[in-house]
Amino acid sequence: MKRPQTTDTMKGQTAYLHHYFIVANTSIMTCSFCINPAYLRCVLRTGKLINEHWTRKSLCSVRSFATEGDNRVPKIYTKTGDKGFSSTFTGERRPKEDHIFEALGNTDELSSAIGLAREFCLDKGHTFRYQLDKIQCILQDVGSSIATPRSSARESHIKRTQFTAQAVADLETWIDNLTEELPPLTNFILPSGGKSSTALHLARAVCRRAERSVAPIVRSGEADPDVAKFLNRLSDYLFTVARYAAMKEGNEEKIYKRPE
């Protein structure tokens, strides 16, 4: 029997604007990477976008994007970007090499890197994997904010994609709690300490790149400054949790030594 959609389930469902993060009130997917083009047109016309859900809940939904009993397969390609231009949430067309899309691509890659690290952590039974779940969902909100440049956004756009500073505070709490269990850091360490730890270090490096790509957008007033703060704090979290994973698994971290 097909389960009825609840209000919370509907609000928790997401869609991508072309290849980037736009959180929408769809009925077919959650944290997935495809979109029904007809619904995309509806989103752009109505301006409906939900992002508060992700930061209010401790975890995002992991329900499959496939709707039960629905065998329709939405097309993932729209052909609207074939000439090298793509759309922001505000409907503005920009070249794909624009700073906005560079930042969106980097945050997308960051979420993928965290997802890979999470799989390694899942195999080892790390409880902090739930924090990684929430971070991936918050990165959806980051993308929503970035994809809404202030120069072309209406007040309704900004209100619906406003990024919450609470996400920064949550990261700081997690960092402090993890640090209490870690031995003091007395040397420079290299990415190491097992698969979980090394994958988290890789995600940290991607996070630093995402932060660098967001910086000019924030300086120009096109994006919320809290987005940059979140990415800055996230790289600190990923460094800390990478060390924590190595410690919990009993793996030795590689210490930097000047080559002789």
TrEMBL record:
Entries under InterPro entries matching the protein: CblAdoTrfase-like (IPR016030), CblAdoTrfase-like_sf (IPR036451), PduO-typ (IPR029499)
- The region annotated as signal peptide is none
Q: Which Pfam families match?
A: Cob_adeno_trans
Any stretches that span the bilayer, and where are they? 20-40
Q: Show where the Cobalamin adenosyltransferase-like domain sits.
A: 76-245
Keyword annotations for this protein? ATP-binding, Membrane, Nucleotide-binding, Transferase, Transmembrane, Transmembrane helix
A single GO molecular function term of this UniProt record? ATP binding
Q: A biological process (GO) annotation for this entry? A: cobalamin metabolic process
Q: Which reaction does it catalyse?
A: cob(I)alamin-[corrinoid adenosyltransferase] + ATP = apo-[corrinoid adenosyltransferase] + adenosylcob(III)alamin + triphosphate
Domain of life, per the record?
Eukaryota
Q: Return the SUPFAM superfamilies for the record.
A: Cobalamin adenosyltransferase-like
Q: How does it assemble?
A: Homotrimer.
- Which family is annotated? Belongs to the Cob(I)alamin adenosyltransferase family.
What does the record give as the function of this protein?
Converts cob(I)alamin to adenosylcobalamin (adenosylcob(III)alamin), a coenzyme for methylmalonyl-CoA mutase, therefore participates in the final step of the vitamin B12 conversion. Generates adenosylcobalamin (AdoCbl) and directly delivers the cofactor to MUT in a transfer that is stimulated by ATP-binding to MMAB and gated by MMAA.
PANTHER family xrefs: CORRINOID ADENOSYLTRANSFERASE, CORRINOID ADENOSYLTRANSFERASE MMAB
NCBIfam families found in the cross-reference section: PduO_Nterm
By what name is this protein known? Corrinoid adenosyltransferase MMAB
Q: Which organism is it from?
A: Monopterus albus
